[in-house]
Amino acid sequence: MTAPPERRQGFGMAAPGRPAPQQDGRAEEAGGRSADPAGQRFAQGQGQGSRSAEPEQDSSAERQIDLLPEDATVNLAAERKAAGIDELLDALDRELVGLAPIKLRIQEIAALLLVDQVRERFGLAATRPSLHMCFTGAPGTGKTTVAMRMAELLHRVGYLERGHLVAVTRDDLVGQYVGHTAPKTKEVLKRAMGGVLFIDEAYYLYRADNERDYGQESIEILLQVMENQRDKIVVVLAGYKDRMDEFFASNPGMSSRIAHHLDFPEYSLDELADIAQLMLSEVRYRLSEDAEATLREYLSRRMQQPRFANARSVRNALERARLRHANRLLSEPDRAWNRDDLMRLESADLLASRVFSEPTSESPAS
Predict the structure, then answer these.
(1) Strand partners, 18
(2) 238-247 pLDDT, tens digit each
Protein backbone atom coordinates (compact mmCIF):
# COMPACT_ATOMS: atom_id res chain seq x y z
CA MET A 1 0.00 0.00 0.00
CA THR A 2 1.30 3.43 -0.91
CA ALA A 3 1.95 5.59 2.13
CA PRO A 4 -0.16 8.72 2.33
CA PRO A 5 1.68 11.97 1.61
CA GLU A 6 3.47 13.49 4.58
CA ARG A 7 1.62 16.35 6.22
CA ARG A 8 3.16 19.09 8.26
CA GLN A 9 2.03 22.20 10.07
CA GLY A 10 2.28 25.36 7.99
CA PHE A 11 2.63 28.90 9.29
CA GLY A 12 -0.80 29.81 8.03
CA MET A 13 -0.44 28.98 4.34
CA ALA A 14 -3.43 27.52 2.56
CA ALA A 15 -3.21 24.09 0.96
CA PRO A 16 -2.26 23.94 -2.74
CA GLY A 17 -5.01 25.19 -4.98
CA ARG A 18 -7.07 26.31 -1.99
CA PRO A 19 -6.30 29.93 -1.11
CA ALA A 20 -7.24 31.08 2.34
CA PRO A 21 -10.72 32.61 2.61
CA GLN A 22 -10.54 36.20 1.49
CA GLN A 23 -11.37 38.95 3.92
CA ASP A 24 -12.49 42.19 2.42
CA GLY A 25 -9.71 44.44 3.64
CA ARG A 26 -11.98 46.34 5.98
CA ALA A 27 -10.44 48.88 8.28
CA GLU A 28 -11.39 50.34 11.61
CA GLU A 29 -10.15 53.03 13.92
CA ALA A 30 -9.63 52.53 17.60
CA GLY A 31 -12.83 54.32 18.50
CA GLY A 32 -14.92 52.07 16.30
CA ARG A 33 -15.01 54.52 13.40
CA SER A 34 -14.13 53.36 9.92
CA ALA A 35 -10.69 54.46 8.76
CA ASP A 36 -10.51 57.00 5.94
CA PRO A 37 -8.86 55.18 3.04
CA ALA A 38 -6.29 57.87 2.41
CA GLY A 39 -7.91 60.28 0.09
CA GLN A 40 -8.67 58.62 -3.23
CA ARG A 41 -12.11 57.29 -2.28
CA PHE A 42 -14.83 59.85 -3.02
CA ALA A 43 -18.28 58.40 -2.46
CA GLN A 44 -19.49 57.62 1.03
CA GLY A 45 -20.05 53.92 1.44
CA GLN A 46 -17.57 52.92 -1.25
CA GLY A 47 -14.41 50.98 -0.53
CA GLN A 48 -13.51 48.80 2.38
CA GLY A 49 -12.70 51.75 4.62
CA SER A 50 -16.39 52.46 5.18
CA ARG A 51 -16.96 49.15 6.95
CA SER A 52 -16.04 48.70 10.58
CA ALA A 53 -17.47 45.32 11.57
CA GLU A 54 -15.03 42.78 12.93
CA PRO A 55 -13.82 40.27 10.32
CA GLU A 56 -14.57 36.66 11.00
CA GLN A 57 -11.86 34.55 12.53
CA ASP A 58 -9.99 32.41 10.04
CA SER A 59 -8.82 28.88 10.67
CA SER A 60 -6.05 28.85 8.05
CA ALA A 61 -3.34 28.92 10.73
CA GLU A 62 -4.47 25.45 11.83
CA ARG A 63 -4.42 23.88 8.36
CA GLN A 64 -2.06 21.08 7.49
CA ILE A 65 -0.32 21.23 4.12
CA ASP A 66 0.57 18.37 1.80
CA LEU A 67 4.26 18.06 1.00
CA LEU A 68 5.04 17.78 -2.70
CA PRO A 69 7.45 15.16 -4.08
CA GLU A 70 10.94 16.42 -4.84
CA ASP A 71 10.46 16.07 -8.60
CA ALA A 72 7.19 18.06 -8.66
CA THR A 73 6.88 21.37 -10.49
CA VAL A 74 4.78 24.41 -9.66
CA ASN A 75 3.47 27.18 -11.90
CA LEU A 76 3.99 30.28 -9.78
CA ALA A 77 1.85 32.49 -12.01
CA ALA A 78 -1.07 30.11 -11.53
CA GLU A 79 -0.45 30.01 -7.79
CA ARG A 80 -0.44 33.79 -7.63
CA LYS A 81 -3.71 34.00 -9.53
CA ALA A 82 -5.33 31.27 -7.41
CA ALA A 83 -4.39 33.13 -4.23
CA GLY A 84 -6.13 36.25 -5.52
CA ILE A 85 -2.90 38.28 -5.56
CA ASP A 86 -3.34 39.39 -9.18
CA GLU A 87 -6.83 40.61 -8.39
CA LEU A 88 -5.59 42.57 -5.39
CA LEU A 89 -2.70 44.20 -7.26
CA ASP A 90 -5.05 45.14 -10.11
CA ALA A 91 -7.42 46.73 -7.59
CA LEU A 92 -4.55 48.74 -6.13
CA ASP A 93 -3.65 49.98 -9.61
CA ARG A 94 -7.25 51.08 -10.16
CA GLU A 95 -7.58 52.76 -6.77
CA LEU A 96 -4.28 54.64 -6.64
CA VAL A 97 -2.79 56.87 -9.31
CA GLY A 98 1.01 56.82 -9.61
CA LEU A 99 3.04 55.45 -6.67
CA ALA A 100 4.98 53.07 -8.94
CA PRO A 101 7.78 52.40 -6.37
CA ILE A 102 5.20 51.64 -3.66
CA LYS A 103 3.29 49.24 -5.91
CA LEU A 104 6.56 47.53 -6.88
CA ARG A 105 7.47 46.93 -3.23
CA ILE A 106 4.05 45.43 -2.57
CA GLN A 107 4.49 43.18 -5.58
CA GLU A 108 7.91 42.10 -4.29
CA ILE A 109 6.53 41.30 -0.84
CA ALA A 110 3.72 39.28 -2.43
CA ALA A 111 6.25 37.38 -4.55
CA LEU A 112 8.44 36.57 -1.53
CA LEU A 113 5.54 35.28 0.53
CA LEU A 114 4.20 33.22 -2.36
CA VAL A 115 7.61 31.64 -3.01
CA ASP A 116 7.97 30.93 0.71
CA GLN A 117 4.58 29.22 0.60
CA VAL A 118 5.65 27.01 -2.30
CA ARG A 119 9.03 26.28 -0.67
CA GLU A 120 7.24 25.07 2.42
CA ARG A 121 5.22 22.65 0.33
CA PHE A 122 8.51 21.18 -0.90
CA GLY A 123 9.69 20.78 2.68
CA LEU A 124 12.15 23.66 2.39
CA ALA A 125 12.73 26.17 5.16
CA ALA A 126 10.32 29.09 4.95
CA THR A 127 11.05 31.42 7.83
CA ARG A 128 8.61 34.25 8.34
CA PRO A 129 10.11 37.57 7.23
CA SER A 130 9.59 40.60 9.42
CA LEU A 131 7.14 42.94 7.74
CA HIS A 132 6.81 45.87 10.13
CA MET A 133 6.83 49.01 8.01
CA CYS A 134 7.15 52.78 8.01
CA PHE A 135 5.09 54.84 5.55
CA THR A 136 6.29 58.42 5.17
CA GLY A 137 4.69 61.21 3.20
CA ALA A 138 2.27 64.11 3.30
CA PRO A 139 -1.45 63.66 4.02
CA GLY A 140 -3.56 62.29 1.20
CA THR A 141 -0.81 60.37 -0.58
CA GLY A 142 -2.39 56.93 -0.18
CA LYS A 143 -0.77 55.58 2.97
CA THR A 144 -3.94 54.25 4.59
CA THR A 145 -5.23 52.72 1.36
CA VAL A 146 -1.94 50.89 0.83
CA ALA A 147 -2.00 49.67 4.44
CA MET A 148 -5.50 48.26 3.93
CA ARG A 149 -4.48 46.45 0.77
CA MET A 150 -1.35 45.18 2.48
CA ALA A 151 -3.48 43.69 5.26
CA GLU A 152 -5.62 41.92 2.70
CA LEU A 153 -2.58 40.69 0.80
CA LEU A 154 -0.94 39.26 3.91
CA HIS A 155 -4.12 37.40 4.73
CA ARG A 156 -4.51 35.98 1.24
CA VAL A 157 -1.04 34.47 1.27
CA GLY A 158 -1.52 33.15 4.80
CA TYR A 159 0.94 35.40 6.59
CA LEU A 160 -1.78 36.85 8.83
CA GLU A 161 -4.90 35.13 10.09
CA ARG A 162 -7.27 38.03 9.44
CA GLY A 163 -7.55 40.70 6.73
CA HIS A 164 -8.29 43.72 8.86
CA LEU A 165 -6.62 47.04 9.57
CA VAL A 166 -6.83 48.93 12.86
CA ALA A 167 -5.94 52.61 12.40
CA VAL A 168 -5.01 54.61 15.51
CA THR A 169 -3.26 57.75 16.71
CA ARG A 170 -1.47 58.66 19.94
CA ASP A 171 -4.77 59.37 21.72
CA ASP A 172 -5.84 55.75 21.24
CA LEU A 173 -2.64 54.40 22.79
CA VAL A 174 -1.43 56.83 25.46
CA GLY A 175 -3.27 57.58 28.68
CA GLN A 176 -3.44 60.79 30.67
CA TYR A 177 -2.56 59.44 34.09
CA VAL A 178 -0.46 56.73 35.73
CA GLY A 179 -1.68 53.24 34.95
CA HIS A 180 -3.84 54.31 32.01
CA THR A 181 -1.46 53.81 29.08
CA ALA A 182 -0.73 50.09 29.36
CA PRO A 183 -4.41 48.99 29.26
CA LYS A 184 -5.15 51.30 26.32
CA THR A 185 -2.18 50.08 24.29
CA LYS A 186 -2.83 46.43 25.07
CA GLU A 187 -6.49 46.76 24.12
CA VAL A 188 -5.57 48.21 20.73
CA LEU A 189 -3.00 45.46 20.18
CA LYS A 190 -5.56 42.83 21.12
CA ARG A 191 -7.97 44.06 18.46
CA ALA A 192 -5.20 44.32 15.88
CA MET A 193 -3.90 40.77 16.42
CA GLY A 194 -3.99 38.77 13.22
CA GLY A 195 -3.96 41.94 11.15
CA VAL A 196 -2.22 45.27 10.61
CA LEU A 197 -1.94 48.05 13.19
CA PHE A 198 -1.58 51.42 11.47
CA ILE A 199 -0.29 54.20 13.76
CA ASP A 200 -0.70 57.59 12.10
CA GLU A 201 1.65 60.41 13.10
CA ALA A 202 3.56 57.88 15.19
CA TYR A 203 6.20 60.45 16.23
CA TYR A 204 3.68 61.97 18.65
CA LEU A 205 4.10 58.86 20.81
CA TYR A 206 7.44 60.26 21.97
CA ARG A 207 7.72 63.69 23.57
CA ALA A 208 11.25 64.24 24.78
CA ASP A 209 10.44 67.65 26.22
CA ASN A 210 7.91 66.21 28.68
CA GLU A 211 9.36 63.97 31.38
CA ARG A 212 5.88 63.13 32.67
CA ASP A 213 4.62 61.98 29.29
CA TYR A 214 3.42 58.37 29.15
CA GLY A 215 4.15 57.78 25.46
CA GLN A 216 7.38 55.92 26.18
CA GLU A 217 5.41 53.29 28.08
CA SER A 218 3.29 52.66 25.00
CA ILE A 219 6.41 52.46 22.81
CA GLU A 220 7.95 49.83 25.09
CA ILE A 221 4.81 47.68 24.91
CA LEU A 222 4.74 48.03 21.12
CA LEU A 223 8.40 47.05 20.87
CA GLN A 224 7.84 43.91 22.90
CA VAL A 225 4.89 42.82 20.77
CA MET A 226 6.60 43.70 17.49
CA GLU A 227 9.51 41.44 18.46
CA ASN A 228 7.81 38.55 20.25
CA GLN A 229 4.58 38.35 18.25
CA ARG A 230 5.70 39.42 14.79
CA ASP A 231 4.08 36.28 13.42
CA LYS A 232 0.68 37.55 14.58
CA ILE A 233 0.69 41.26 13.80
CA VAL A 234 2.25 43.77 11.40
CA VAL A 235 2.78 47.32 12.68
CA VAL A 236 2.88 50.23 10.23
CA LEU A 237 4.14 53.59 11.51
CA ALA A 238 3.14 56.59 9.40
CA GLY A 239 3.85 60.30 9.26
CA TYR A 240 5.99 63.03 7.74
CA LYS A 241 9.47 61.80 6.80
CA ASP A 242 11.52 64.37 8.71
CA ARG A 243 9.56 63.81 11.91
CA MET A 244 9.72 60.03 11.55
CA ASP A 245 13.50 60.29 11.12
CA GLU A 246 13.70 62.22 14.38
CA PHE A 247 11.46 59.66 16.08
CA PHE A 248 13.69 56.77 14.99
CA ALA A 249 16.82 58.65 16.08
CA SER A 250 15.33 58.95 19.56
CA ASN A 251 14.03 55.37 19.55
CA PRO A 252 16.65 53.11 17.91
CA GLY A 253 14.86 50.02 19.17
CA MET A 254 11.85 50.92 17.08
CA SER A 255 13.97 51.73 14.04
CA SER A 256 15.69 48.33 14.17
CA ARG A 257 12.34 46.55 14.03
CA ILE A 258 11.16 48.28 10.86
CA ALA A 259 11.94 46.13 7.83
CA HIS A 260 10.45 48.30 5.09
CA HIS A 261 10.57 52.07 4.71
CA LEU A 262 8.23 53.33 1.99
CA ASP A 263 8.17 57.01 1.03
CA PHE A 264 4.95 58.26 -0.57
CA PRO A 265 5.72 61.22 -2.85
CA GLU A 266 3.34 64.12 -3.30
CA TYR A 267 1.27 63.96 -6.46
CA SER A 268 2.01 66.01 -9.55
CA LEU A 269 -0.60 68.24 -11.16
CA ASP A 270 -1.30 65.63 -13.86
CA GLU A 271 -1.69 62.89 -11.25
CA LEU A 272 -4.08 65.01 -9.19
CA ALA A 273 -6.17 65.65 -12.30
CA ASP A 274 -6.26 61.90 -12.97
CA ILE A 275 -7.30 61.28 -9.35
CA ALA A 276 -10.15 63.76 -9.77
CA GLN A 277 -11.37 61.95 -12.88
CA LEU A 278 -11.20 58.63 -11.04
CA MET A 279 -13.19 59.97 -8.10
CA LEU A 280 -15.84 61.45 -10.36
CA SER A 281 -16.21 58.29 -12.43
CA GLU A 282 -16.87 56.29 -9.26
CA VAL A 283 -19.97 58.40 -8.54
CA ARG A 284 -21.02 58.86 -12.19
CA TYR A 285 -20.08 62.50 -12.59
CA ARG A 286 -17.91 64.09 -15.26
CA LEU A 287 -16.35 67.45 -16.09
CA SER A 288 -17.23 69.53 -19.11
CA GLU A 289 -14.32 70.49 -21.34
CA ASP A 290 -14.18 73.95 -19.80
CA ALA A 291 -14.45 72.51 -16.31
CA GLU A 292 -11.45 70.25 -16.92
CA ALA A 293 -9.31 73.30 -17.64
CA THR A 294 -10.77 75.10 -14.62
CA LEU A 295 -10.00 72.13 -12.37
CA ARG A 296 -6.36 72.14 -13.45
CA GLU A 297 -6.15 75.85 -12.64
CA TYR A 298 -7.82 75.20 -9.29
CA LEU A 299 -5.33 72.43 -8.46
CA SER A 300 -2.37 74.51 -9.56
CA ARG A 301 -3.42 77.26 -7.17
CA ARG A 302 -4.44 74.96 -4.32
CA MET A 303 -1.07 73.16 -4.38
CA GLN A 304 0.62 76.45 -3.47
CA GLN A 305 -1.70 77.29 -0.58
CA PRO A 306 -1.50 76.19 3.06
CA ARG A 307 -2.81 72.85 4.32
CA PHE A 308 -2.85 71.22 0.90
CA ALA A 309 -3.48 67.49 1.38
CA ASN A 310 -3.05 65.96 -2.07
CA ALA A 311 -5.88 63.53 -2.90
CA ARG A 312 -7.87 64.57 0.16
CA SER A 313 -7.90 68.16 -1.06
CA VAL A 314 -9.06 66.94 -4.47
CA ARG A 315 -11.88 64.98 -2.86
CA ASN A 316 -12.97 67.99 -0.80
CA ALA A 317 -12.95 70.25 -3.85
CA LEU A 318 -15.12 67.84 -5.82
CA GLU A 319 -17.58 67.44 -2.98
CA ARG A 320 -18.01 71.21 -2.82
CA ALA A 321 -18.36 71.34 -6.61
CA ARG A 322 -21.19 68.82 -6.37
CA LEU A 323 -22.91 71.03 -3.82
CA ARG A 324 -22.70 74.03 -6.15
CA HIS A 325 -23.81 71.92 -9.10
CA ALA A 326 -26.93 70.76 -7.25
CA ASN A 327 -27.73 74.28 -6.11
CA ARG A 328 -27.22 75.63 -9.64
CA LEU A 329 -29.73 73.16 -11.06
CA LEU A 330 -32.32 73.98 -8.42
CA SER A 331 -31.85 77.71 -8.96
CA GLU A 332 -33.76 77.43 -12.24
CA PRO A 333 -37.07 75.88 -11.13
CA ASP A 334 -38.77 76.28 -14.51
CA ARG A 335 -36.09 74.44 -16.47
CA ALA A 336 -36.07 70.70 -17.15
CA TRP A 337 -32.78 68.88 -16.81
CA ASN A 338 -31.71 65.70 -18.59
CA ARG A 339 -29.47 62.84 -17.48
CA ASP A 340 -26.29 64.44 -18.79
CA ASP A 341 -27.06 67.68 -16.94
CA LEU A 342 -27.23 65.68 -13.70
CA MET A 343 -23.80 64.18 -14.36
CA ARG A 344 -21.88 67.16 -15.78
CA LEU A 345 -19.97 69.65 -13.64
CA GLU A 346 -19.32 73.03 -15.21
CA SER A 347 -16.60 75.64 -14.66
CA ALA A 348 -18.96 77.72 -12.53
CA ASP A 349 -19.15 74.89 -10.01
CA LEU A 350 -15.42 75.25 -9.43
CA LEU A 351 -14.84 78.96 -9.97
CA ALA A 352 -16.95 79.84 -6.94
CA SER A 353 -14.22 78.39 -4.70
CA ARG A 354 -12.31 80.89 -2.58
CA VAL A 355 -9.13 79.27 -3.89
CA PHE A 356 -9.45 81.58 -6.89
CA SER A 357 -9.62 84.67 -4.67
CA GLU A 358 -6.93 83.79 -2.13
CA PRO A 359 -3.24 84.54 -2.82
CA THR A 360 -0.87 81.66 -3.45
CA SER A 361 2.58 81.25 -1.93
CA GLU A 362 4.07 82.61 -5.14
CA SER A 363 1.89 85.72 -5.18
CA PRO A 364 3.50 89.01 -4.19
CA ALA A 365 2.65 90.26 -0.73
CA SER A 366 -0.09 92.86 -0.70
Answers:
(1) none
(2) 999 999 999 9
